[in-house]
Structures are given as structure tokens and as C-alpha cells.
């Protein structure tokens, strides 16, 4: 059966209209799906005790470490929560830029060791090991530009900041590692991996073996910090940079972050699990040594 020219034109018109209707319906369905997904993903914003999450209309998410609204003290609970928190942040495509910062003009000040329990217990350390690696992997897997806005002390887990694309530090900010060699344990949780990647192995080793506060200006000279700003202005400057980055197309922003972080991600996969095992063994040895010193010496009578 042949199709006459007029019949062909009619068929083509019907096909075009049908395709347009399917495309419109598909676009509406996709829009509804995206809206529902983003609405569901936003549920995690209030799920964490030590991470305040706020996002503006442009998709700039500020993740603020805190303890009861003030300067943040790392605990076992927060160590566990951050695994999920940074996974959800990376999963949520509503986040266009991420800013990491801390409350009370501090980044991360110290750690509550007692909250982790008996670190000489293999089961306890197994959880610390897994969470420690997963947090770093999940921050590295945030596939949009990440800006760390550091005020005050970044004395515990400064590696979180070093996983950012850019670090903006206040004039009075200091970087230090009070949680490892100075406390008697090997710095194996990613602190060496990130600092040696950003500053070079020699500087990282000296920094970790003799932990002294490193001023923001010195970190800038090392190439770790991108900008030093007046105290109290780190987040403001981070927002300005976020506004600048948002001018690039979304896929460009995402792919640039993915490209830039890839070499460090590879080092995390290669090194941090092993490093955490070494840190666990040193922690167990430290606990055993402390227990031996606290035990009374046996006395023998003639």
C-alpha cells in the first residue's frame, strides 16, 4: 500500500505532535522525580548532632561543625554521624557548592578520647578504622567544589579541610595535629596522606612529628591555604568564591572537582586503611603501657 504525499504530511504531523506530547510528559515526570528526590534528600539536614546544615536558594550548602552550637569537640558519636552526613551531602544534587566551617570561630578544636571507649579492643578499633576511612572517602566523593572556611583552631582532623578544593583561612587560624604523635599514637588516619599531598612529604613529616601550631600565613606559604583573610571573614569570602564558581555550567563544576580530587582519592584508597591499622596497633600499645604504669608494683617480703 502506497502513501500519498498528503497522507504522509498528515502522518508526519501526527508523529511530531505525539513525540512532543511524550517529551513534555517525560520532562514533567522527570521534574516531579527530581523535586521529590531533592525534597527527600533534604530530610537529612536536621539529622546530626554536631553538623549544622543550611543551604541557600543558589544551592550553596554550609556544613558547620559544632558542639551545642559552640566550638566543636570531636566525639565517637560525631565520628559515626559524619560517615552518613558526608555521604548524603555528596548524594544530594541540590548541593551546588559546599562550604565546610566550624562554629564559635573555631574549626575543630580537640577530641574527647573517653567517648571512643577501649581503643585496645579490636572490635572498638574496627569501627574507628572503618568510619575513619569512610568519612574521608565520602568527603572526597562530594562531586561539587568544596571550600573550607577555617577560623581559629584546626587542631583535630585538619585533613577534612585539606580535602576541600580551596581553603580560605582567617589571619588568626592555626593548623595542628594534637591527636596523634603528641598523644602517643601513629598519625595514620589520613592526616599524613592529606598534608603530604598538599604540602610535600618533608614538611608533613616535620609538622606531624613535632606538632606545633602552624599559622595561616605559613600554611599559605606552603601552598595549603589559598587565601588568608581578616578574622571573622572566612565564610564571607567562601561565599564570594561560591558565587564566582556558580557562573560556570553545573557539569563543568562537577567534572572539575572530580578531576582535581582524583589523585588524592587514589592515595586515600592506597594508604589510609593501612595507616589506620598502624594507628590502631600503636593505640593498643599506648593503652597497655598506660595500664602497666598505673598497676601497683608487687612487693615481696623476706
Distinctive features:
alpha/beta; 2-enoyl-CoA Hydratase, Chain A, domain 1; six-stranded mixed beta sheet; three-stranded mixed beta sheet; 13% strand; globular; disordered N terminus; disordered C terminus
Number of DSSP strand runs: 11
Class from helix and strand fractions: alpha/beta
Principal-axis shape equals globular
Termini distance?
121 Å
Low-confidence stretches: 1-6, 297-302
CATH topology: 2-enoyl-CoA Hydratase, Chain A, domain 1
How many alpha or pi helices?
A: 9
- CATH class (first level) name: Alpha Beta
Total discrete domains: 1
- For the report, how would you describe the main beta sheet? 6 strands, mixed
Q: Enumerate the strands of the largest sheet in spatial order, edge to edge or round the barrel.
A: 1-2-4-6-8-11
Report the helical percentage: 40-55%
Write structural notes for this entry:
The chain is an alpha/beta fold. It has a single domain (44-285), classed as 2-enoyl-CoA Hydratase, Chain A, domain 1 (Alpha-Beta Complex). It has helices at residues 5-41, 76-91, 122-140, 158-162, 191-199, 201-209, 216-221, 234-245, 250-294; strands spanning 51-55, 60-65, 73-74, 97-102, 110-111, 146-150, 153-154, 166-170, 174-175, 214-215, 227-229. The protein is globular and about 60 Å long. The model is unreliable at 1-6 and 297-302 (pLDDT under 50).
In a nutshell, what does this entry contain?
Helices cover 52% and strands 13% of the residues. The protein is α/β, with parallel strands linked by helices and 302 residues long.
Amino acid at each position: 500500500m502506497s502513501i500519498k504525499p498528503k497522507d504522509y504530511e498528515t502522518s508526519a504531523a501526527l508523529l511530531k505532535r505525539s513525540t512532543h506530547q511524550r517529551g513534555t510528559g517525560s520532562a514533567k515526570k522527570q521534574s516531579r522525580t527530581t523535586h521529590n528526590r531533592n525534597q527527600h534528600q533534604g530530610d537529612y539536614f536536621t539529622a546530626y548532632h554536631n553538623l549544622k546544615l543550611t543551604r541557600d536558594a543558589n544551592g550553596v550548602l554550609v556544613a558547620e561543625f559544632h558542639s551545642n552550637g559552640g566550638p566543636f569537640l570531636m566525639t565517637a558519636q560525631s565520628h559515626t554521624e559524619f560517615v552518613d552526613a558526608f555521604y548524603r551531602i555528596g548524594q544530594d544534587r541540590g548541593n551546588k557548592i559546599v562550604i565546610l566551617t566550624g562554629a564559635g570561630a573555631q574549626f575543630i578544636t580537640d577530641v574527647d578520647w573517653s567517648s571512643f571507649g577501649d581503643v585496645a579492643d579490636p572490635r572498638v578499633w574496627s569501627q574507628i578504622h572503618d568510619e575513619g576511612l569512610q568519612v574521608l572517602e565520602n568527603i572526597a566523593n562530594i562531586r561539587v567544589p568544596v571550600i573550607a572556611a577555617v577560623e581559629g583552631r584546626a587542631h583535630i582532623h585538619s585533613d577534612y579541610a585539606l580535602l576541600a578544593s580551596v581553603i580560605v583561612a582567617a589571619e588568626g587560624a592555626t593548623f595542628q595535629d594534637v591527636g596523634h604523635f603528641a598523644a602517643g599514637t601513629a598519625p595514620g588516619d589520613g592526616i599524613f596522606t592529606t598534608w603530604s599531598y598538599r604540602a610535600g612529604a618533608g614538611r608533613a613529616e616535620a609538622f606531624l612529628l613535632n606538632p606545633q601550631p602552624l599559622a595561616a600565613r605559613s600554611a599559605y606559604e606552603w601552598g595549603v591555604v589559598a587565601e588568608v583573610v581578616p578574622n571573622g571573614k572566612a565564610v564571607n569570602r567562601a561565599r564570594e568564591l561560591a558565587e564566582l564558581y556558580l557562573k560556570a555550567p553545573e557539569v563543568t563544576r562537577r567534572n572539575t572537582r572530580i578531576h582535581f580530587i582524583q589523585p588524592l582519592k587514589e592515595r586515600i584508597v592506597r594508604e589510609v586503611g593501612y595507616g589506620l591499622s598502624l594507628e590502631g596497633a600503636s593505640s593498643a600499645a599506648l593503652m597497655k603501657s598506660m595500664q602497666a604504669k598505673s598497676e601497683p608494683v608487687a612487693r615481696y617480703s623476706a
